[in-house]
């Protein structure tokens, strides 16, 4: 620790704090304390990712498919338990690999290779909000093009993204499909979160939180429920993506699809069906 740049101490202290909370709550100290810091960080991200995915997905499915059965999703469109278990299986196989990305991003932050800052007061609230907005725009742009190229470049689609697109109807899509990707596919689509760290100042805690929020967001856009909250790229837009494969590549909003000519509005689809 003595050879580490003093400016980087807050980053290491914060990630070590998270490791102590998660690992210290689950394992005896003699099992995890001797592990290298990077392995501790990877293990903490893996455990956190698994718990977030399973708990949020289970609660979501319990509410929309059972407690409110038929209210949000037509009964004949509710996926079978077998379909959901298959999605969970794909996600669980990929989760150890997914967890490498936040572990490496934290490692690069701790080394001082990125433009991250540890505390909001280091830059001020207004600057923090501005940087976070720019970060999100970069992430949105990056995920749009990464997702689009995973469709346009045939080998990438065939060997990576097709694993996710076997879920192409309402009765095969569920919140658990949100992380059911080939491991490399899932990592590539999250890479813009890390690339942005080298381009714009970013708050460490916010970066980690946004990475983990991906599990909840991807669950949301695979539940087939139309929230009708413009300009959010909600489940109605993403369900169209799973049926046409050529539209609605965006992540949080419709803006990138609108700018690059790939937007297909669910309300227009409904109007065509009505006529």
Would you write up a description of this structure?
The model has no long low-confidence stretch (mean pLDDT 92). The protein contains twelve helices and two strands. The protein is 62% helix and 1% strand. It has a two-stranded parallel sheet. The chain has 275 residues and is mostly helical. The radius of gyration is 20 Å and the shape is globular. The chain has helices spanning 9-26, 29-32, 37-67, 81-98, 100-110, 125-152, 154-159, 183-195, 204-220, 235-244, 255-260, 266-274; strands spanning 116-117, 202-203. 36% of the residues are buried.
Attribute tags:
275 residues, 2 strands, 12 helices, two-stranded parallel sheet, mainly alpha
- Quantity of strands, as a count: 2
Q: Which residue ranges are poorly predicted, with pLDDT under 50 across at least 5 consecutive positions?
A: none
Report the radius of gyration as a whole number of Å: 20 Å
Oligomeric state as shown: single chain
Derived structural class: mainly alpha
Shape descriptor reads globular
- Measure the end-to-end span: 69 Å
Helix content bin: 55-70%
- What kind of sheet is the major sheet? 2 strands, parallel
Mean pLDDT metric: 92
Order of H and E elements: HHHHHEHHHEHHHH
SS summary, helix count = 12
User: Which sequence of strands runs across the widest sheet?
Assistant: 1-2
Estimate what percentage of residues fall within beta strands. Answer: under 5%
Layout: helices, strands, pairs:
Layout: H1 9-26, H2 29-32, H3 37-67, H4 81-98, H5 100-110, E1 116-117, H6 125-152, H7 154-159, H8 183-195, E2 202-203, H9 204-220, H10 235-244, H11 255-260, H12 266-274
Parallel strand pairs: 1-2
Helix pairs in contact: 1-3, 3-4, 3-5, 3-9, 4-8, 6-8
């Amino acid at each position: 620790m003595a050879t580490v740049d003093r400016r980087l101490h807050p980053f290491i202290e914060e990630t070590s704090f998270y490791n102590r909370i998660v690992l210290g709550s689950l394992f005896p100290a003699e099992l995890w304390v001797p592990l290298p810091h990077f392995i501790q960080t990877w293990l903490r991200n893996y455990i956190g990712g698994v718990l977030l995915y399973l708990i949020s997905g289970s609660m979501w499915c319990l509410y929309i498919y059972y407690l409110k059965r038929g209210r949000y999703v037509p009964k004949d469109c509710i996926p079978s338990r077998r379909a959901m278990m298959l999605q969970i299986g794909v996600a669980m196989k990929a989760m150890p690999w997914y967890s490498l990305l936040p572990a490496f991003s934290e490692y690069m932050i701790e080394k001082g290779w990125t433009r991250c800052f540890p505390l909001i007061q280091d830059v001020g609230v207004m600057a923090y909000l501005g940087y976070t907005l720019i970060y999100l725009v970069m992430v949105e742009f990056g995920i749009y093009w990464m997702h689009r190229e995973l469709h346009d470049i045939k080998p990438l689609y065939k060997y990576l993204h097709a694993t996710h697109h076997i879920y192409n109807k309402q009765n095969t899509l569920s919140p658990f499909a949100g992380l059911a990707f080939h491991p490399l596919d899932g990592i590539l689509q999250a890479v813009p979160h890390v690339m942005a760290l080298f381009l714009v100042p970013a708050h460490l805690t916010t970066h980690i939180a946004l990475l983990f929020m991906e599990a909840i967001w991807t669950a949301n856009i695979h539940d087939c429920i139309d929230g009708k909250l413009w300009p959010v790229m909600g489940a109605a837009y993403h369900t169209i993506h799973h049926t046409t494969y050529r539209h609605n590549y965006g992540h949080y909003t419709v803006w990138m699809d609108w700018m690059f000519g790939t937007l297909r509005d669910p309300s227009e689809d409904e109007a065509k069906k009505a006529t």
